[in-house]
Amino acid sequence: MGAEVVVEGLTKSFGRQTIWRDVTLTLPPGEVSVMLGPSGTGKSVFLKSMIGLLKPDRGRCEINGVDIVTCSEHKLYEIRKLFGVLFQDGALFGSMNLYDNVAFPLREHTKKSESEIRKVVFEKLDMTGLNGAEKKLPGEISGGMRKRAGLARALVLDPEIILVDEPDSGLDPVRTSYISQLLIDLNTQIDATILIVSHNINLARTVPDNIGMLFRRELIMFGPREVLLTSEEPVVKQFLNGSRIGPIGMSEEKDEATMAAEQAQVDAGHHDGGTDDVRGVVPQIQPTPGLGERAGVRRRLDRVMSILHTLPPAAQQGIRDSLTEEDRARYGAGAGATTALRPSPHPRNGDGGWQPASGDLNVAELPTSNYREPRGGQ
Ligand SMILES: Nc1ncnc2c1ncn2[C@@H]1O[C@H](COP(=O)(O)OP(=O)(O)OP(=O)(O)O)[C@@H](O)[C@H]1O
Ligand SMILES: [Mg+2]
Fold it and tell me: I need a surface site. Which of 52, 85, 322, 364 has the fewest CB within 10 A?
């Protein structure tokens, strides 16, 4: 099973600019999570902080009991071997062909022979649809191919934790579906803990077990997918539906006057730029037939059912609706109950219940995936 990643109170600034503060979440081992957030909210900075490429100002990021924020360089080097990372720009070496780029971590971190390396490299190139392109330089291929080559390179060490920054950017919708399927299949095969940073709503709706969102320098939500997908929170609603109406603006956040003016335009019949409301719980992508089941799905369901009563009603309903007959038998009364089943082992807000978010953006009140107390939530 992949490693658990525990992030607590993580804060990152560049000079006087705070990127995000007090980020607390746990990536459950072997589950797939997605981090959403408008452009510039610090998703890539978060990902780089998780592997110690950027140094947070405060907080912990613990992997297998090692806090990578404070550990020695030597420890960090060891911990990094657990990770496979696809950076937003692919981060390929421009002077190396794709074969050498993908082989690089194997040559750097393992004692494999060239023939063993060749086998792994071709397997990963095949997986990412790059067979035949191995002799090409990064500058000679398309953006989408570079992205896939970066993913192939991220996978060669059979990582316990896979971080992928916008795997879909530069990819057409069909290739994006293939990448989504690939990530689910990978998780099925190696049970790795996966964090995907993305703007892609379709991917966010169909791939992850857990979803989080960064906005206005905070992690406003992190938890079971059903929570975000059914959220009434204006910023989440706006983001999922890709509408101009809501708190997210073109550059920084909007003021009240701009929001009111935009709403008036839409009320007068002007298109809000969005789609039909796509909120709601849709089925997750299944592993390719023949691969078996994802162990993470069962573990997640056990976990989610134990905190079901702390979740917002719409999320509870979404979870219940997705249960099979077998699940209902397994979870018994819990699968049908509409009120508290049993007290949470880590009660929040004193009563173990979920606190509806207020009208503003402080929706970090939602339970995180490991029932960790959010900031200020005591
Ligand atoms: N090395 C750096 N030095 C100074 N500021 C930085 C650095 N890296 C990122 N930033 C700033 O941090 C903020 C967040 O950047 P980041 O790249 O994490 O955003 P993002 O959420 O990944 O956006 P996008 O969706 O467009 O990729 C930006 O304001 C950016 O300018
Ligand atoms: Mg980014």
Answer: 322
**CATH code for the domain of 53:** 3.40.50.300
How many Å apart are CA 162 and CA 304, to the nearest integer? 22
Ligand 1 pocket residue status of 37, Cβ below 6 Å: yes
pLDDT digits (tens, 9 = 90+) for 219-245: 998 999 999 999 888 888 888 777 777
Q: Is 41 in the pocket of ligand 1 (CB under 6 A)?
A: yes
C-alpha to C-alpha distance for 365 and 343, rounded to whole angstroms: 18
* CB of residue 45 inside a 6 A radius of ligand 1: yes
- Which residue has the CA at smallest separation from atom 3 of ligand 1? 14
Please enumerate in sequence order all residues whose Cβ is within 8 A of that of 286, keeping only pairs 6 or more positions apart, or say none. Answer: 184
User: Where residue 144 falls among pLDDT bands split at 50, 70, 90?
Assistant: confident
Q: pLDDT tens-digit profile of 305-353? A: 999 989 999 999 999 998 989 989 888 866 665 443 333 333 333 333 3
Within a domain: residue 167?
A: yes
Tell how far the Cα of 177 is from the centroid of ligand 2, in angstroms. Answer: 20
Instruction: Give 112 Cα–ligand 2 centroid separation in angstroms.
Output: 33
- The total domain count for the chain is 1
Residue 300 lies in a domain: no
pLDDT of 213 over the 50 cut: yes
pTM of the model: 0.84
